[in-house]
Amino acid sequence: NHAGLVALTRPKSERALGLMQMAKRKAWGELSMPEAAERYAEELFAEASSHGLPNLILSSEFFIVLRRREFRALLERVSGWAKNVVVICYIRHPASEHISMMQHVIKRGEKTMDVAAAAELRRGMCERLEDIAIACEGLAQLRLKPFQRTSLKGGDVITDFLAEVGMADEAIANVEPLRENEGLCAEALQLASALAGLKPKGSGALLDH
Question: What is the pTM of this model?
């Protein structure tokens, strides 16, 4: 997870700052947050360069929080380290994304099953995708891929991504995907939504176990 790179251009990102705070406690306690973000990036690319490998994969779900100018600024930084930059985005069908976001917020205990709220979240994600597409112009190749099992190699996004970045089928066969975020059935989703409505505000996630 390279979420620390988000702090380079969006220093107020809570997720990025959380990751950088852990790094500071480990080794960079005397640095400010912007300095820690710079140190993180320098060490990441120095380590990657030392291996002499042709490709470097930067991956984090938190890249999506970057606005257009912020994402372009990150691409400009990465372009200084790489000859070619490729951005790969997996896009879900709007209906599937809607259900996934609704499940996510309910499992976290943040909201009840509010269709309007889930739709608003989805609109925000669409705006972020548009920002990414415009930010890539002239700096990076953009590849858009459908996020649905019938379109993914082997029916799995990890297998599909590894093939997309050039890994041979023989090597991919040795990778065993791990699924950690299972979706809820309709009944469980309704129950979780009802519990979220009863839960005291700010008391944390519903499904910790």
Answer: 0.72
Nearest partner of 61 among 157, 167, 184, 160, judged by Cα = 157
Burial classification of residue 158, based on how many CB atoms lie within 10 Å of its CB (0-12 exposed, 13-18 middle, 19 or more buried): middle
Ramachandran bin of 3, using left for φ above 0, alpha for ψ from -120 to 50, beta for the remaining angles: alpha
3-state secondary structure of 156: coil
CB 10 within 8 A of CB 66: yes
CB contact at 8 A, 103 and 183: yes
> Hey, which bits of the chain come out as E strands?
86-91, 141-146
User: What digits encode the pLDDT tens for the residues 113-158?
Assistant: 566 766 776 777 778 888 999 999 999 999 999 888 888 988 888 8
Q: Which residues contact 141 (CB under 8 A, 6 or more apart)?
A: 84, 85, 86, 87
The one-letter amino acid code at 152 reads L
